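Long-time lurker. I teach an intro course on protein structure, and each term I like to show students one example going from raw sequence to a predicted 3D structure in token notation. This year I'd like something fresh instead of my usual example. Would anyone be willing to generate the tokens for the chain below so I can use it in lecture? Attribution to the forum is fine with me.
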Amino acid sequence: MTTNNSKNFLSAIIACYNDEEAIPLMHNRLTKIFKKMKCNYEIIFVCDGSPDNSEKVLKDLCAKDKQTIAIIHSRNFSSQNSFVSGLHIASGDAVIFLDGDLQDPPELIEKFFEKWKLGYEVVYGKRVKREGNFLLHLCYKLFYRVFNKLSYITVPQDAGDFSLIDKKVYQSIKSLPEKDIFIRGLRAWVGFSQIGVEYTRPKRVFGKSTNNIFKNIQWAKKGIFSFSNTPLEIISYLAIFVVFLSVLAMIFYISTFFLYPDVPRGFTTMFVLILFLGGVQLLSVSIISEYIGKILEETKNRPKFIIDKIYNNPKSKKK
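-- Reply from a regular --
Happy to contribute to a lecture. Here you go:
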């Protein structure tokens, strides 16, 4: 790794949904930290179809600060696509991804910046502790460990989207054509030199999180089915096991038929076998359907997001 002191322009991309109260504080804290670091910067808020008053808050903020840009989506396209949307506007030597609820502390950017200056091309936040729901925290811990067991890539454990990414890395991510985006997986997939910075993730200050156990299951499925073929391999092994079990059952029943011809034949064993085989088939079909669903989404070739309007559009300034 080589030290590069010529890079000093940063683009912060904030995915916002129901964050109207947090947006001014996020802007204030980001502005303070960037000025403290004495670097050039731009702050890009992406309002992802938020039903609250976020757009008006952002419009007023952009009118006061020309270094702030606001992208307004036509509807909700997910936080992952919000980050990609920001990448199409960003012009920094590096970008920083943050969630708009202030659970990603902007003050940590200074440590990210120091690591980047040392030559690391991806610096991610590693959550050593989470304030809030213990059960969700446990589920997140479990997900990363299961994911790395199943996946053909290794995603840093307990690392979310909060990160600083060098321009050549984020350009690589932006160029990827897939529609079902999983940023932390793609960040690991593209490679380059990466390092983590540990921090404690605070609980949400404003509003109520839209996250729940069902959405976390969807997140887990998104990650696993995007970066692992192991579920399909499990089906193959399961099929071999069932065939082997069936052969043993046939041998057993043929043997008992000749050895004990007068023993009455019950339906319990057949009932259990039918339920077992039916369960295996349904499980196999459900796993295959997840992959088919992902293929369907990719082949539709729809855009990842639709932009309704942009306040302080940097591209219009260049014309």
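Some talking points for your students: The longest strand covers residues 122-130. The two ends are 38 Å apart (CA to CA).
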